[in-house]
Give the backbone structure.
Amino acid sequence: MSHIATASAQNFEQELPYYEPVGNECALFEQAYQQRLPLLLKGPTGCGKTRFVSHMAAKLGRPLFTVSCHDDLTAADLTGRYLLQGGETRWVDGPLTRAVREGGICYLDEVVEARKDVTVVLHPLTDDRRLLPLERTGELLEAPDDFMLVVSYNPGYQHILKSLKPSTRQRFVAMSFDFPPPKVECEIVARESGLAYDRCAALVNLAASLRAMKGQDLEEGVSTRLLVYCATLINAGMPILDAACATLVEPLSDDQDVQQGLMEAIRATFG
Ligand SMILES: Nc1ncnc2c1ncn2[C@@H]1O[C@H](COP(=O)(O)OP(=O)(O)O)[C@@H](O)[C@H]1O
Ligand SMILES: [Mg+2]
C-alpha cells in the first residue's frame, strides 16, 4: 500500500509546473490561502507571475481558473450568463463562479484592464463575507475555505485611467515581482531552454546591460520569458546574433535607433 501512495505522490510532484523561488513568495502565498486572504501580484511582464500561480495551485491541489483581462471583459464574463442551448436557455457559470463553487483559485491576469463593473463583483468576495451574489440567478454564493482570488497587474504601463483604485487594492495582500537575481535567472533559462548553464549565464549578463537601457525610449526591459526564447533558439542551432535579434531586439522596440542601440550591446557581448 505505502509504496503505491509514494508513487502517486511522486507523480503529483512531477506534474508541478516548474517554478524557481526568488524569496518568500511561496510561503506568503500559502499563508494567504490558509488565512483566506486575496492576493495581488505586481510586476513587469514575463517575470514569472503566471508560472508562480500555476505552481502554487498545483502544490495546494486546487483547480486553477485563469482569466486574461481585457478592456471588453465584463462582470458577466466572470460570473456567468444564460445561454441558448438546444432550444433551452441554461445558466452557465463563468470562471469566477466555478472557482467559488468548486473551491479553486481564480487568477485574474492584468486585472486593471477589466471594465469597472468587475470590481463590483470582486468587492464582496474580498472582504470577510467572501460572498458572490449572482443577480441573474438570484443566488448568493458563500466562498468555501479553499477558494482563493489572485489578481495581477503590471505597474510599468499603468496610466491614470487604468490603475486600481485604493478602495480595491487595499483589499489584497500584495507582493512585488521583478526579474530574478542573475543566478536564479540562469537556473531558470537553462532549465526552460535546455541550453548549457554557462551559455545561459552569458545571456543573463547581456540582459543586465539591455535592462540598463530602459528609459524614455524603451518602455520595458527584456523579460525572463524572452531570455528563455533566445536560449531555446540558440539551443536549436540558430546563430546567436540572429536569435538575439529576433528575441531581444524586435519584440522590445519598433524604433530603429533603439534597435540599433540594443544590437550594439549584443554585438559587444557576442560579436
Ligand atoms: N521563477 C521562475 N521559475 C520558473 N520559470 C520562470 C520563472 N520566472 C520566469 N520564468 C519563465 O518565464 C516565462 C514567463 O513567465 P510568466 O509567468 O508567464 O510571466 P508573467 O506572468 O509575469 O508575464 C515562463 O514561461 C518561464 O519559462
Ligand atoms: Mg502572465
About this structure: The CA atoms of residues 112 and 158 lie 8 Å apart.
